[in-house]
Recover the amino acids of this structure.
């Protein structure tokens, strides 16, 4: 059940008392457990945007390659790097990682979007998705999972842990990996800097098929406290 409301919540009022902002902005709210789960999922996916895409490559114990995009994806630590992505349900990617203990997170540019999309189809486990997407599996140096040769960035990861969230019937699994090696194509590098205009990463929006490019960027310098207290003008 959806609960549209136009009155401020207590949180809104607290916020107003603190900030002096108007209480009259109409809003709606959804109470988890009382609202349609599909609506909730759509709202979360459309609001937490843009989501970067982990193009996860694995192999099964027989050596069959697998690739699948995952946009529930994040950096959990940077030194040493730890990456996490979420498998919504038990899929081949998760099964392979649990069986072999490693995976590669490939980052794709906009030239690889069609191939990435192919790898999101529900292939039978025995089918090699590198083959179907016309991609080249390249052996990794530190892990057994192959990387996508065409992808400009590859993070070789060793499985650290899998945690499950969500209801018993349809849990989501957070897959966390320690990055043990990073391989990056020279063409997207200047020294040790990754050039966004060469990387041309893409990200996922809400809805079943909407993406964004990372070609519209801007810089904003972070103020120090000393600068902030001298320059910020409060209303
Ligand atoms: C851009 C994009 C992002 C996706 N993100 C996720 C995700 O975060 N988690 C997930 O479980 N599935 C996600 N999917 C769906 C999987 O890629 C899809 O279920 C795939 O078939 C899983 O493959 P596998 O069974 O070989 O692991 C995404 C699909 C696309 C196209």
């Amino acid at each position: 059940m959806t609960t549209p409301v136009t009155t401020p919540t207590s949180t809104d009022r607290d916020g107003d008392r603190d900030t002096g902002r108007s209480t009259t902005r109409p809003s709606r709210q959804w109470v988890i457990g009382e609202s349609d789960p599909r609506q909730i999922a759509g709202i979360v996916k459309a609001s937490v945007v843009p989501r970067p895409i982990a193009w996860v490559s694995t192999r099964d114990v027989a050596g069959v390659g697998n690739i699948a995009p995952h946009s529930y994806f994040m950096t959990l630590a940077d030194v040493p790097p730890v990456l996490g992505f979420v498998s919504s349900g038990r899929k081949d990617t998760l099964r392979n990682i649990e069986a072999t203990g490693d995976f590669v997170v490939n980052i794709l540019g906009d030239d690889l979007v069609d191939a990435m999309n192919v790898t999101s189809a529900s292939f039978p486990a025995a089918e090699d998705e590198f083959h179907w997407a016309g991609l080249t599996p390249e052996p990794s140096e530190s892990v057994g999972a192959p990387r996508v040769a065409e992808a400009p960035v590859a993070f070789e990861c060793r499985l650290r842990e899998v945690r499950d969230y969500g209801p018993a019937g349809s849990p989501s699994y957070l897959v966390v990996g320690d990055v043990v090696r990073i391989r990056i194509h020279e063409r997207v590098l200047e020294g040790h800097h990754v050039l966004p205009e060469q990387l041309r990463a893409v990200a996922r929006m809400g809805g079943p098929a909407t993406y964004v490019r990372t070609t519209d960027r801007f810089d904003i310098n972070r103020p120090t406290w000393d600068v902030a207290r001298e320059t910020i003008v409060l209303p």
Notes: The two ends are 40 Å apart (CA to CA). Helices lie at 10-19, 37-47, 92-100, 113-118, 129-133, 196-199, 225-231. The domain at 51-213 is CATH 2.30.110.10 (Pnp Oxidase; Chain A). Residues 47 and 94 are 26 Å apart (CA to CA).
